[in-house]
Amino acid sequence: MGSTSLLQQTIGKPLFPNVLWSQPEHRSSAGKLAIVGGNSGGFNSVSETYAAAKVSGAGTIRVLLPSVLKKTLDKIWPDCEFAPSTKSGSFAAGALSEWMEFSLWSDSVIISGDLGKNSETAIILERFLNEYQGPVTLAKDSLASAINVPSQILEHHDLTLVLDRSVLGRLLKEIRYPMAMSSSQNIYQFADLLHSLSQSYPWAIVTEYEQLIFVAYEGDVSSTPKANHSLIAAGTAGVVWRMQQPGKPFAALTSGIYALFSPDAL
Questions:
Q1: Rounded distance, CA 257 to CA 242, Å?
Q2: Burial class (CB in 10 A: 0-12, 13-18, 19+), 93
């Protein structure tokens, strides 16, 4: 039996065709996106997020990385800016002012991950979630770090979570959610879990299961067959579209993923 919670779209059959034709045509009205992440050990999540945001039509993009990466990236990645880093190569406590400046400039912020396990960076993330109330997306290890301060997640009402099943499982345990995940769940049971969770908390959720990308928001759940893109690329595409059409969060997230996965079908 299929779940009444799950809306399924496939190539050639988008759930929200009208939304697909409503993306801004001019860069000036396509939104300002801030991407924050990286450490001396890697910045793949940042570059992946940036690439997906460009393809998905973000108007203006600014990228913030720890200053330890400046020598490597300053000349080859002109959209990058840099904030103070620790000796270990993660964001230092003094980088919070740059995080806030970026966020206040933007229409949406993606904390893309590769933050490392430095305690100063964890403190910045906690303070940032306390102080900034605009649209924020947490992906990869940024979400894993934020789970350690779940009160901030619970209180943020404009939050998109891009999370794999392992982090989703950790989150459910941390908030003591009465429904659990199981390796034996079918896609409809998984959709029912997302349906319930997104009714209980004000988050938009982007995750994957059984070669499908799921979006959940306020009890609505969609699935899209996964193409040759990562979860973070799918989440970024959805967030860009949500930034551009903020009055239709569920439809915009779902349509952004469709557009990334099926550009020839538009």
A1: 11
A2: middle
Contact 55, 260 (CB under 8 A): yes
pTM for this entry: 0.93
Task: Give me the architecture of the 6-265 domain, per CATH.
Answer: 3-Layer(aba) Sandwich (3.40)
Check: CB of residue 72 under 8 Å from CB of residue 39: no
Q: What does the block give as tokens for 262?
A: 């099926």
CA distance 49 to 47: 5
Average pLDDT, the chain: 90
Residues found in the chain:
266
Q: Which residues contact 46 (CB under 8 A, 6 or more apart)?
A: 35, 37, 38, 63, 65, 112, 113, 114
d(CA 229, CA 35): 19
Task: Write the burial class of residue 37 (CB in 10 Å: 0-12 exposed, 13-18 middle, 19+ buried).
Answer: buried
Asked if residue 102 lies in contact with residue 64, where contact means CB atoms within 8 angstroms, the answer is yes
Side chain identity at residue 90, one-letter code: S
> For the chain, which residues make up each domain, given as ranges?
6-265
Residues 6+ apart with CB under 8 A from 212: 187, 223, 224, 225, 226
pLDDT, tens only, 172-212 = 998 899 998 888 899 999 999 999 999 999 999 999 999 99
